[in-house]
Amino acid sequence: MLTWQIVALGLVIPILAMAASGTKLESGTCPAAADGDSGCVGIPPPPDQARYDNYRIYNVEFENEEQIALFQKLEDQSDSLTFIGHAREIGQKLSILVAAHRVADFADLLETYKLKHRVLTYNFQEKIDRNLKEVQPEDIDALQLDWQHFFHLKTIYEWMDKMAAKYPDRLTVLDMGTSTQGNAIKGVKVSSNPKNKAIFIESGIHAREWIAPAAATYIINELLTSQDPQVQRLAQEFNWIVFPCVNPDGYKYTFEHDRMWRKNRQLFGTCRGVDLNRNYPDHWNSAGASSDPTRYDFAGPSAGSELETQRVIEFIRANVGKEQIKTYIALHSYSQMLMFPYGYTKERVSNYDDLQEFGKKASAAIKAESGRDYVSGSLYETIYPSSGGSMDWAHSEAGIPIAYTFELRGPPDSQDLFILPAVEILPTASEAFTAIRTIVNAAAEKGYYK
Ligand SMILES: [Zn+2]
What we know:
This protein is an alpha/beta fold. The protein contains 13 helices and 14 strands. It is globular. The N and C termini lie far apart (83 Å). The structure holds zinc ion. Zinc ion binds at residues 206, 209, 332.
């Protein structure tokens, strides 16, 4: 005890001296004390923030059914392994974020069952640390919003307000109402003519996919300020309704507490969150969704149970006819995919051939612009089966003929997962807008907006 006290005193004194001199303390430098007293008067405790120190990303490739069955079981059993997708088929490559305390275990399994694999990242926290440095302070002047940094919800909303003040004839701020935790779900409408057909862009339904809201603000800005005559024409001939962040509670949570949070923040006893993109009332919870609230793809207690889902549904129902919404685009990351309905079944939508053709044209346009490969196809065929998605609902229930879900950068074997470096915001957002413009132009040629 005496020895400990000497050691503790030795630590506490320099720390207090640093605090007194105004030196910023690293979190976690406060020594714990045996008597329950923190011994750190005046020193703030570390923030309540999830950390991913020494978490690894493995990319595994399945070569036989035994390995697939093993990994399906593993996903069910462990909440220390974050699967980015599900084990499904031979030849499939799957990324898995492995908690630091499971690395030895996991490596042993790979060895034992002879799985082909690569380690993509050895310390995931480094990616997050780098990413958090790319966030501008919440109280920055919103007109300084750019596409070289990431921004808090508050800044994005203030930016929309200030842009509406700057472009009062063309930009209107919209409000769908509040989220589960009382945050507004705000968007904008860019319009030059009330008679135009409308394109609806939904973004940020998955909280950690920060590139999606960034791409949405980029598109709004381009529609208002671009000097490109082709962009100006699309801004004049169509009305654009863009909601950059339809999951504001989750988005805020990723800045404040856990960069990897995906769902909304609804409480279910001991855990939180519904995957809002599994909650829509269209073949709800029939495929690729979970009934377990602890899971990342929890479909919710019932179809359309969540306030955020209801807000979008009410908005679309009220406006699909009035605003003539003919196109619905949902922005996500990552994997570089341009996908159309259905997500819940391999059956084909009635305009499958058109959507396939537009998607392929959009992929080709991106390839020509940046050299990046984006795969196109139905969501079921392209990424993995999933039900209760907003796109399926928009197409089947709301009757919007042109509906896509984009997975933006990075590639399927990305070392960053959802933590895309800020330097990639501009090229990624530009790819998204190029794809949308290509799809809209191609659909116009086929008479979808007559
Ligand atoms: Zn997503």
